[in-house]
């Protein structure tokens, strides 16, 4: 049964394209039986906006999310059928512990169908926006990729235990800007690997799903997220 639970639209996300209705129509045309809408939860501090969002305010992000939920619920009613399920969810941001509280409150307030649990920041610095931001994060970790990876999976663990998201997004996103010649692209050291196994066990214990995210191919990684060492586990 073709399904996807991680999607974005240009209507409500600066790094995507198209209207939300277009995303639904395209999924139906491709034969998907289940589509999950999962725009990002809004960030609540001005310093956490990405460069592509500098023309916006924190209030703008909040208003955009409110409009997203209203639009998504309308589409859900419109496309209700026995052959196609449309779910309304959101993708989390974990920047600090307060952002976990914020995500939980948004879920409760809007009665979201599910969450995609993702981590895009380490030490409050974006790791997936561009190489410059990743390098800034790496410097904050003392230049150690191993420390950056360990911090990433520790942040993921806090997000998983606090929110118990139904879907785990791009499990090993921390590998995105690692040089392809670096062995960490293929093999993780024991100090990181034990964190990976811990996080997998948490998700399995509460019955969550791990997405296979093909965006990694477009970004030049050898496999979809997660890379094959984690996928085999």
List keywords for this structure.
233 residues, alpha/beta, TIM Barrel, six-stranded parallel beta sheet, two-stranded antiparallel ribbon, 8 helices, 43% helix, 11% strand, globular
What does the model show?
- Residues 5-214 form the PHP domain.
- Its EC number is 3.1.3.15.
- One of its GO terms (biological process) is L-histidine biosynthetic process.
- Keywords: Amino-acid biosynthesis, Histidine biosynthesis, Hydrolase.
- The protein has helices at 20-29, 58-78, 97-110, 131-140, 145-163, 190-206, 215-218, 228-232, and strands at 3-4, 34-37, 85-91, 114-117, 121-122, 125-126, 167-168, 209-210.
- The chain has 233 residues and is of the alpha/beta class.
- The protein has 2 domains: 1-91; 118-233, TIM Barrel, CATH 3.20.20.140.
- Strands 1-2-3-4-7-8 form a 6-stranded parallel β-sheet.
- β7, α6 and β8 form a beta-alpha-beta unit.
- α3 (97-110) runs parallel beside α5 and α5 runs parallel beside α6.
- It is globular.
């Amino acid at each position: 049964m073709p399904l996807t639970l991680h999607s974005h639209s240009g209507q409500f996300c600066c790094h995507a394209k198209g209207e939300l209705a277009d995303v639904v129509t395209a999924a139906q045309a491709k034969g998907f039986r289940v589509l999950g809408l999962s725009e990002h939860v809004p960030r609540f501090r001005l310093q956490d906006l990405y460069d592509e969002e500098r023309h916006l305010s924190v209030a703008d992000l909040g208003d955009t999310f409110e409009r997203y939920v209203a639009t998504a619920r309308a589409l859900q009613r419109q496309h209700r059928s026995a052959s196609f399920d449309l779910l309304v969810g959101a993708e989390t941001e974990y920047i600090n512990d307060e952002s976990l509280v914020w995500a939980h409150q948004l879920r409760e307030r809007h009665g979201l169908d599910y969450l995609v649990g993702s981590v895009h920041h380490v030490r409050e610095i974006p790791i997936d926006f561009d190489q410059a931001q990743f390098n800034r994060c790496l410097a904050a970790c003392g230049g150690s990729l191993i420390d950056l990876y360990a911090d990433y999976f520790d942040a993921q663990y806090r997000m998983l235990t606090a929110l118990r998201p139904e879907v785990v997004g791009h499990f090993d996103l921390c590998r995105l800007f690692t040089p392809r010649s670096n062995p960490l692209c293929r093999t993780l050291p024991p100090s990181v690997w034990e964190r990976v196994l811990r996080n997998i066990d948490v998700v399995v214990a509460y019955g969550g799903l791990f997405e296979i995210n093909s965006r990694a191919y477009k970004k030049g990684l050898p496999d979809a997220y997660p890379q094959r060492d984690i996928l085999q586990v």
